[in-house]
Amino acid sequence: MKKRTHKYIFVVGGVMSGVGKGITTSSIGALLQAKGFGVNLLKVDPYLNVDAGTMNPTEHGEVFVLNSGLETDQDMGNYERFLNRDLTGDDYITSGMVYKHVIEAERALKYGGHCVEAIPHIRDEIIHRFEKSAKANKSDITVVEIGGTVGDYQNIMFIEAARVMKVKYPNDVAFVMVSFMPVPHTLGEMKSKPTQNALRQLNSYGVNADIIIARSETPMDHKRKEKIAVSCSLPVENIISAPDIESVFDVPINFEKDNISKILLKLLHLREKKNTPGIVEWIKFANSVKNTKDTVDIAIVGKYFNTGDFVLTDAYVSVLEAIKYSAYKLGRKAKIHTVNSRDFEKADLKASDFKVLDKYDGIIVPGGFGESGIEGKLAVIKYAREKKIPYFGLCYGMQLMVIEYARNVLGLKDANTAEINVNSNSLVIDIMPDQKKKLEELNYGGSMRLGSYNAHIEKGTVAYEAYKQEIVQERHRHRYEVNPEFIKKITDAGLVFSGKSPNGVLMEIAELPKKVHPFFLGTQFHPEFLARPLAPHPLFTEFIREAIHPRKFLPMKKSKS
Ligand code: GLN
Fold it and tell me: Of 125, 395, 508, 517, which is the active-site residue?
């Protein structure tokens, strides 16, 4: 029998960045998967950072963590959400990773005395990694998104590697260029010249695009498509119109209107399969996104929102998405409000200033690092606890919840985390010994407790009510932990550790019992990384359920009507 060959699709960007290459890649993946093929999605980030872990979230957005513990770009989150499955540590490549590997191999005399150069050594290492990701996933098709735009210096080596892949496997490789068609207001007409130029640039690398995704404000008519098709030497069907739409979840549905999966299968010499699942479930979900009217108001209290005059929520994408999916599941549209924690730590703060929080049905304190904005977060958590506003703490949000409880319920006034004040007498959150050593060695990159670990869930708790199972796997990214020395004191005072590491040493979930508070729960891990449109995360769903119901009966809400 003839050996089945693996297929690759390379997605590159033309004209400019920020026009949706990530969502295009995710959508292509979701569509081919729905046609019955095993698909993995691979992101190439051309920067020299070895991983995304050391980057500032205000600048670069969220650091997304895979099961393997690799700290990656937020696009990986979109990939997993669209595919509704976990990806591997081989599905993310940076220039830093590739160069580090090649340079270390050179130092170890692995190149037998040869001169080590970008071509062939860097290029071949990239090719090796493309092939490795295909093997690791045991998939049929790998869709590779090459970060940046055609014409950048940084991604040339990756495009070169993709070109060689096409030479190596002529029938198994396709190129998709995501381009942008501006409509200058003064002209009122869609212009295709920037796309032609981008394609020419791509051609100068020896690569041609097989499909052009034409991003534009409005849908593209046949005449425009013909014009682009002729100038790009492509059949008109291979120009896919991708107008701005209300929700990203409509992108795959929209692409399918232009038969993208059929065209791709043809380009890859793959035959359509019979009786494949299709995107029925996806369409159902996308419709609920459009048709849900009732709302639930959730506040995210963080500090990575402001860059200059802009408010960005990029640092918390997975949290936002997780909230939305659970809300849709419960028939609500989540209205998410960004609250800057620093607003709650001004010197002249009055008790009445907290009243603004009453309008939210639920409050989340997400993950974070360092000292700034912390006292504000603690003040908000105290308010949520006392006013019985559903509260969900994620990682730092759980650690701060424990600190707040220690300070205001146990009376340990100087309770703190070693991250902020090592001199506190009540370090309820402390650094793990192995982590301490890493920091002393200035070993910051990829050195936290990262990736998927098991947690044991205590029966009869809020957490168990949500998960309905005793062992769960969740993704982590932290250096500090609940200090074992304080666990007895804290639990005696009423806070329950309902999730623990299997050996019982690390506290994974803290909560107040239902009879005390409708939902006051924090996780040392990041449940948001596992929330998917078609599989919302049970803890988020439980939180939103409480946010929707009990708040309705609180007097302060009633008095408004
Ligand atoms: N800064 C905290 C720690 O390192 C929490 C990290 C996080 O929220 N991701 O433990």
Answer: 395
Token pair listed for 106: 């050179």
Our answer to whether residue 337 is catalytic in this structure is: no
280 and 327 part of one domain: no
377 lines ligand 1 (CB under 6 A): no
CA atoms of 27 and 82, how far apart (whole Å): 7
Q: pTM of the prediction?
A: 0.93
Mean of the per-residue pLDDT values for the chain?
92
Chain centroid to CA 361:
24
Q: Distance of alpha carbon 246 from its chain centroid, rounded?
A: 20
Whether residue 134 is contained in a domain is answered as yes
Identify whether residues 522 and 448 lie together within a single domain: yes
Q: Let me know whether 297 and 434 are in one domain.
A: yes
Residue nearest to atom 6 of ligand 1 (CA): 478
Q: Does residue 367 have its Cβ closer than 6 Å to ligand 1?
A: yes
Phi, psi angles (nearest 5°) of residue 306:
-95, 125
Helical axes 156-168 vs 123-137, angle rounded to 10°: 60
Residue 546 annotated among the catalytic residues of the structure: no
Q: Ligand 1: which atom is nearest the Cα of residue 370?
A: 1
Domain count, the chain: 2
Instruction: Summarize the confidence of residues 494-521 as an average pLDDT.
Output: 96
Q: Is the confidence at residue 517, as pLDDT, over 50?
A: yes
**Residue-wise pLDDT tens digits, 386-420:** 999 999 999 999 999 999 999 999 999 999 999 99
Residues 468 and 512 in one domain: yes
Find the 86 Cα to ligand 1 centroid distance in Å: 23
Q: Which atom of ligand 1 is nearest to the CA of 429?
A: 10
Q: Classify residue 371 as exposed, middle or buried by CB count within 10 Å of its CB (0-12, 13-18, 19+).
A: exposed
CB distance 419 to ligand 1 below 6 Å:
yes
Q: Are residues 301 and 275 in the same domain?
A: no
Catalytic residue among 528, 537, 542, 546: 528
Q: What is the mean pLDDT of residues 428-446?
A: 86
Ligand 1 mean position, distance from CA 465 (Å): 26
